[in-house]
Amino acid sequence: PIPLVLDVDTGIDDAMAILLAALHPGLDLRAVTCAGGNAPLEDVVRNTLTVLEIAGRTDVPVGVGARRPLLEQPVDARHVHGSDGMGDLGLPAPRTQPDPRIAVELLRDEAERAYAQGRPLTLVPLAPMTNVALLARVHPDAFARLRRVVFMGGGADVSNATAAAEFNVFHDPEATALVLDACVEHDVPVTMYGLDVFYAPRVTREQSQALRDLGTPVATLAAGLTSFHQRVFQDGTMTVGDAGAVASLLVPQAVRTERRPVRVELAGTWTRGRTIVDRRDWTGDMEHDPHGPARAMVDVCLGVDGDALRDVWL
Ligand code: BDR
Ligand code: CA
């Protein structure tokens, strides 16, 4: 199984991702770290602990991380995720506590432990990347030991938070830029699972009902998450969102990537937080770009077999 750590802002689809990472035999979930994003940090931590408890994985340590972005003020997305950040499903409060280590310390420990075991860690950020940026700055040696980073964020052509930017990157653009730069500096491969593919893996109403009919605690939670009305498309389907990024680790052939230079817009009146994916020909205009070459080369997900990823999640 692939050793991995999720960094989350749980979050309906973060919860779906945690379920998959916690329960799939092909994955070895070592820890989950939390950042403010979809909901304020306290809600994110509570939701994360609750999901792990329902999944029977109270052995997975949960690290409390950044309350707010590096520079920006926090802006949550409760209009998308419900007032508790997780679909107002009326879930019980968790009985477990977060790990005493804060997120960057837990990330450092797990990166070093996996490296020492000869199976370096895959880090999967599904939230604003504040914690990951701090890891890169506070413990660069541990960051350098990562096997790869696969993050949900950005988009080559699609946006949601603003007309130009995706939520996770818009929330903390400096953190995203810093992480991409750290991946170059420490030679850590980075994959961007962005909005170009994010909406493709979708659960149908019938599939959601089939989960509900199973009646187990995990399936009941999964069914609740897939039927939160604010997230359901007009055709009755619902994206598994962040869980698709986790599923892509298990069926890499379901995702088409291109290695492209990526920059994060840190200025811009209307474009702050946009990921600028350079899709020009290598031999053409790119060479004469007055900005010079972009540092970060990112495996950008541009196509996906949504049903294949959805089926892995189901
Ligand atoms: C991202 O923002 C959050 O609302 C989701 O959990 C996902 O990580 C999509 O833009
Ligand atoms: Ca998320």
Structure description:
This protein has 314 residues and is an alpha/beta fold. It contains 13 helices and 11 strands. It has helices at residues 12-23, 41-54, 78-81, 103-116, 130-138, 140-143, 167-171, 173-185, 195-198, 205-214, 217-225, 242-250, 306-313, and strands spanning 2-8, 27-34, 62-64, 122-125, 148-152, 190-193, 202-203, 238-239, 255-264, 275-277, 297-304. The strands form 2 sheets. A 9-stranded mixed β-sheet has the order 3-2-1-4-5-6-11-9-10, with helices on both faces. The chain is globular. The model has no long low-confidence stretch (mean pLDDT 95). It binds beta-D-ribofuranose and calcium ion. Residues 9, 11, 13-14, 38, 126-127, 242 line the site of calcium ion. Calcium ion binds next to helix 1.
